Amino acid sequence: VLNPPPGPSPFDQVKDELDMLADDVRELVDTDHPVLKLAASHFFSLASGKKFRPTIVMLMSQAVERIGEPRDEDVYERQRRLGQITEMIHTASLIHDDVLDEAETRRGSDAVHKLFSNKVAVLAGDFLLARASVLLARLGNVEVVEVMATALDALVTGEVMQAKAQPTDLESFDWYVRKSYFKTASLIACSCKSAALLSGYGQESEEVIAAEKFGYHLGLAFQIVDDLLDFTQSADLLGKPALSDLKNGHATAPILYAAEEYPEMGPLIRRRFKDKGDVQTAHKLLKQSSGLEKTRELALWHASQAVEWLSSFPDTPANQALVRLTTQVITRIK
Ligand code: FPP
Ligand code: FPP
Ligand code: MG
Ligand code: MG
Fold first, then answer.
1. ipTM above 0.90, yes or no
2. What is the pTM of this model?
């Protein structure tokens, strides 16, 4: 299923919408406070953000359109807003995440808290989130407000799970998948679901369910690939520190698979790789194991599930673009 026919880049297919997004967001984060403005707009002026989420939202919005009917421009405009809201929430969460993780770089540049201070970063994230909430309310759809508020709840739940993890949680694959859902997949799943709701489909409709399932599997595939790249790619390429998960004490899929083959990984995971040499030992055991291959297979499985859910929608250029985007998620190198 993951061998889509070649076609235009999924990003180019919604290029006009993405261009508008950048301009709009600059306007939306306009504030009298110069530092806040700088901190918040810093992110949107960087070309390096992948704008994955707004791209997915726009393509999903097109994919759920009814064949043979003219586009409802009013609906499409609100879906464009949804894409914007999603990117603003995502960016707010990254600004806060870099404070929590004490990460120095993001999107190939200094993290906001490094450029300014923790205080500015906390405020800038809150500010973006506040503006996103106003826009969300203005969509005038209570179901969508609830779904997107649930995504926010999930983001915070994921961070709290990570911060409060017990040693046994850290070794559990099930816990890892749940945390990955909360941290990453929930925002994609909820925004895909919301795109379908905005098109007028009911909560229980096949379209809304398929949109959410697609987002769920794509989001998990994305996070699992992210966890893989943390081991396989250089800091330069990622625009953020390499091996950062190990250094931050996080055991992700590659390590959990490696632990199935090398039980001596267990104590390292439980003490969050904090003893001297732990990071190196864990990395060495990982390289001897089939952890990286198995992680790739897991990402591929989720990607193929995502593509299967897309078959609920008519075979349109947008649908095909979503298939190509799913393929890109698992073949990406940064
Ligand atoms: C940065 O996002 C990283 C995260 C938010 C943590 C992991 C989450 C993702 C990688 C999930 C996104 C899922 C999909 C399917 C789009 P990013 O790598 O998208 O950062 P960017 O916006 O700076 O490119
Ligand atoms: C990146 O994960 C972080 C997230 C996907 C979510 C962060 C969420 C919060 C900080 C909760 C607050 C939420 C809002 C909306 C303000 P990561 O650290 O694994 O990825 P990284 O390698 O890209 O840093
Ligand atoms: Mg982080
Ligand atoms: Mg984090």
1. no
2. 0.89
